[in-house]
Design a protein that fits this description.
- The protein is α/β, with parallel strands linked by helices and 167 residues long.
- It has a single domain, classed as Leucine Aminopeptidase, subunit E, domain 1 (3-Layer(aba) Sandwich), CATH 3.40.220.
- It is 40% helix and 22% strand.
- It has a six-stranded mixed sheet with strand order 1-6-5-2-4-3, with helices on both faces.
- Strand 3 and strand 4 form a beta hairpin.
- The longest helix has 18 residues.
- The protein is globular, with a radius of gyration of 14 Å.
Length: 167
C-alpha cells in the first residue's frame, strides 16, 4: 500500500526518486513550478526536453500525459505532466486525474519508490485547490505501486486542502 505524506515547502528541494513537474505542453519551461524546476534542475532538463520535442513529442506533450527526464536535482528523475486549465463550462477532471495516473505509471516503469507531486493545475491553471486535492488524493490511492507519494505544497491553503482529503 502506498503511503501518502504532505510536506509544506519547495518541490525543487525534495529528495525523492522522482519529482513531478506541472509542465506546460511545450516542455521548454515556464512559470510557477515548471519554471522553478527548470531553473533549479539546470540545463540538462531543458536539453532532454528539447530532444523529446525533436522526436516523439514534436507537437509537445498532451494534457494528461507524462514523460520523464533527468535533471540536476535531489531526484533521479523529473516526470513532466501537463495539467488541464480549469473550466466552468467543461468538466476536465478526468484529465487532471490522468496527470496523476500517467505520472505514477511512468514512475512505476522507472522503478521509482518515492514520488513528489505539486498541486497540479491548482496554480496559474486556476483549478480550485479543494477539488484539485480531492482528485489528486483519490487517483494516487487507486493508481500505483510506488511506496511513498509526497504532495509538496507551497502554501498553507494548499496544505490544508490536501490534509482534509487525507482525513
Amino acid at each position: 500500500m502506498t503511503t501518502i505524506r504532505l510536506v509544506r515547502g519547495d518541490i525543487t528541494r525534495e529528495s525523492a526518486d522522482a519529482i513531478v513537474n506541472a509542465a506546460n505542453s511545450s516542455l521548454l519551461g515556464g512559470g510557477g513550478v515548471d519554471g522553478a524546476i527548470h531553473r533549479r534542475g539546470g540545463p540538462a532538463i531543458l536539453a532532454e526536453c528539447r530532444r523529446l520535442r525533436a522526436g516523439h513529442y514534436g507537437k509537445g506533450l498532451a494534457t494528461g500525459q507524462a514523460v520523464a527526464t533527468t535533471g540536476d536535482l535531489d531526484a533521479r528523475w523529473v516526470i513532466h505532466t501537463v495539467g488541464p486549465r480549469y473550466s466552468h463550462e467543461e468538466d476536465r477532471s478526468a484529465l487532471l486525474a490522468s496527470c496523476h495516473r500517467e505520472s505514477l505509471r511512468v514512475a512505476d516503469e522507472l522503478g521509482a519508490r518515492t514520488v513528489a507531486f505539486p498541486a497540479v493545475s491548482a496554480g496559474i491553471y486556476g483549478w480550485p485547490i479543494d477539488d484539485a486535492a480531492r482528485i489528486a488524493v483519490e487517483t494516487v490511492r487507486e493508481a500505483t505501486t510506488v511506496e511513498e507519494v509526497r504532495f509538496v505544497l507551497f502554501d498553507e491553503k494548499a496544505y490544508d486542502a490536501f490534509a482534509r482529503q487525507l482525513d
